[in-house]
Design goal:
By secondary structure, this protein is mostly helical. The protein has helices at about 15-30, 40-50, 50-55, 65, 75-95, 95-120, 130-145, 165-180, 195-215, 215-225, and strands at about 1-5, 150-155, 160-165. The protein has a 3-stranded antiparallel beta sheet with strand order 1-2-3. The longest helix has 22 residues, at about 75-95.
């Protein structure tokens, strides 16, 4: 299950969201020449990724920022950029361009610190924008809990696109990160669950002042928990081409 789009276009062009997507893609493409050279790639990560053990030794503080623009593969990049594209534009619309950029970077920093706290002596480099994007998702949850998001459900041969309120998808995603963090080893694990959970909480908490300035629950009531723009309309999904087998 993963989101593929929302029904809530922003009221103005989300320049920062687009720029972040372009920047992440550009940096990833620039690393492709060394992707097959393990020694070169390892040296690059140790220079720019967030390595908790080095951070605890007083090295690489700037890597809290540089690490959030690195990705470990095409799927890692594509998944993160999809989430940023879905949730970033409306939050940027509400915060403004400069405010959103500052919010995004601070969420990424706090997410990195959460991962360091979970395994302070881990030698595993942490890369990816997912901590910062998790913060955007936390802000989105507070601002627009009833906004509709289309999720793609896939189970063996069954698949379907289903619109759900954002609070269902976002809280389920957060629960998966929290449970994953409890059951994972930060030294040997391959997913930075605590960066995701920490970024999400940071984004939610940092959005509270804005939500209160907008009127708190009155802000929800004014737009029924949706972004204050007309919803996008999509054609109904095509029926599945998998033939049905009827019982005799």
């Amino acid at each position: 299950m993963f989101p593929i789009r929302d029904h809530n276009p922003s009221g103005r062009v989300p320049f920062v969201t687009y720029a972040l997507i372009a920047f992440n893609i550009g940096i990833f493409l620039s690393t492709l020449p060394i992707a097959q050279n393990e020694a070169a790639l390892g040296a690059f990560y140790y220079s720019y990724a967030l390595v908790p053990r080095l951070f605890m030794q007083g090295e690489g503080f700037g890597n809290l920022i540089t690490s959030m623009f690195l990705h470990g593969g095409w799927l890692h990049l594509a998944g993160n950029m999809l989430f940023l594209w879905i949730f970033g534009d409306n939050v940027e619309d509400e915060m403004g361009h400069a405010g959103f950029l500052s919010f995004y970077l601070l969420c990424g920093i706090l997410a990195g610190l959460a991962q360091v706290a979970s395994g302070p002596w881990s030698p595993v480099p942490m890369v990816g924008a997912s901590g910062a994007i998790a913060g955007v998702m936390g802000g989105y949850l507070l601002l627009y809990p009833k906004a509709r998001v289309d999720i793609f459900l896939f189970f063996i041969v069954f698949f379907r696109i289903v619109p759900v309120p954002s609070w269902i998808m976002l809280l389920l995603w957060f629960a998966m990160q929290f449970i994953g963090g409890i059951g994972s080893d930060p030294v040997t694990g391959g997913v930075a669950y605590w960066a995701h959970a920490g970024g999400f909480i940071a984004g939610f908490v940092m959005t509270i002042p804005l939500w209160l300035r907008r009127g708190g629950t009155a802000f929800w009531q004014a737009s029924n928990g949706h972004p204050p723009h007309p919803e996008a309309r999509y054609p109904p999904p095509l029926p599945s081409s998998i033939p049905k087998v009827r019982r005799k």
